[in-house]
């Protein structure tokens, strides 16, 4: 497995924190020099940006931080496709790693057949109510792989992808950026979501470090859901279609309300050093 954490040269203290945490857990994650959004020249922006193909879905202008973040992930994908490894792990440097994460990062033997994309980091609050699909996969030591449908499980803080998933992603977007990278990866409004099932590890083993301030920049109101006249009616149409499908086929569209803390023993990571959790051997 190829493992990288994204870190800008302007944040050496975050790199030190991750390196120290990896030594504590006896795992190794290579640093990947992340692109600094403010340093991107216009030629590089033109090379990567696609402001047309999905403008009906995401119409606002991306921040420099979002562009830099997305370019960094794309560069990691390019390096991964050139490698001989079959799985890739990407971590952003503003995450906290629990003790339990080590067992999931030493190898990929625990990943069930047919799974190609897994979020192991969460942006959800402890105890937050979510809706998931009925299908789920049982792992050892009380862990599960679930498919979250509401709220939309965006966030690219820590995820695993195999080569098939990365190839489909790059073929879908032609290595172009049309939205924040987590929207392109995990949002149902974008085409990759329909081509590759996203699973989420429950309980999660990586959470944001609330001591850090985001380097992405101010995303403004309505992040991820910009509204134009076209996009408003487009989403209204999709919402009506989904509503009709749910009524027609309850079995295929059954969502279960889940409290991650009580029913899935959510790992709560407070500010500071993450708490221990059951370790996946």
In short:
The protein has 281 residues and is an alpha/beta fold.
How would you sum up this structure, described in words?
The protein is an alpha/beta fold and 281 residues long. The protein contains eight helices and eleven strands. It has helices at residues 12-25, 42-48, 64-82, 101-105, 163-173, 181-186, 191-195, 229-248, and strands at residues 2-7, 30-33, 87-92, 95-97, 117-119, 129-138, 144-150, 158-162, 199-202, 206-208, 255-259. The strands form two sheets. Strands 2-1-3-8-5-9-7-6-11 form a nine-stranded mixed sheet, with helices on both faces. A two-stranded antiparallel sheet has the order 4-10. The radius of gyration is 19 Å and the shape is globular. The model is unreliable at 249-281 (pLDDT under 50).
Name some characteristics of this structure:
281 residues; alpha/beta; nine-stranded mixed beta sheet; two-stranded antiparallel sheet; 31% helix; globular; disordered C terminus
């Amino acid at each position: 497995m190829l493992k990288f954490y994204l870190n800008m040269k302007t944040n050496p203290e975050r790199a030190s924190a991750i390196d120290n945490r990896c030594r504590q857990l006896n795992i190794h994650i290579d640093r990947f020099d992340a692109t600094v959004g403010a340093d991107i020249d216009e030629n590089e922006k033109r090379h990567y940006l696609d402001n047309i193909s999905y403008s009906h879905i995401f119409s606002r202008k991306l921040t420099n931080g979002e562009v830099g973040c997305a370019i960094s992930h794309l560069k990691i994908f390019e390096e991964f496709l050139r490698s001989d490894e079959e799985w890739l792990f990407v971590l952003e440097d503003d995450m906290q790693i629990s003790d339990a994460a080590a067992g999931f990062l030493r190898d990929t033997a625990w990943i069930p057949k047919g799974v190609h994309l897994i979020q192991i980091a969460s942006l959800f609050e402890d105890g937050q109510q979510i809706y998931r699909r009925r299908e789920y996969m049982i792992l050892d030591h009380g862990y599960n792989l679930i498919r979250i449908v509401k709220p939309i499980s965006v966030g690219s803080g820590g995820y695993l992808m195999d080569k098939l998933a990365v190839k489909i992603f790059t073929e879908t977007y032609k290595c172009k950026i049309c939205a924040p990278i987590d929207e392109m990866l995990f949002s149902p409004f974008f085409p990759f979501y329909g081509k590759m099932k996203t699973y989420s590890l429950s309980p999660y083993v990586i959470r944001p470090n609330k001591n850090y301030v985001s380097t992405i920049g101010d995303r403004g109101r309505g992040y991820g859901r910009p509204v134009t006249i076209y996009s408003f009616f487009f989403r209204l149409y999709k919402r009506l279609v989904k509503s009709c499908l749910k009524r027609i086929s309850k079995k295929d569209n059954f969502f279960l309300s889940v409290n991650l803390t009580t029913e899935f023993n959510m790992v709560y990571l407070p500010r500071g050093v993450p708490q221990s959790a059951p370790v996946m051997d």
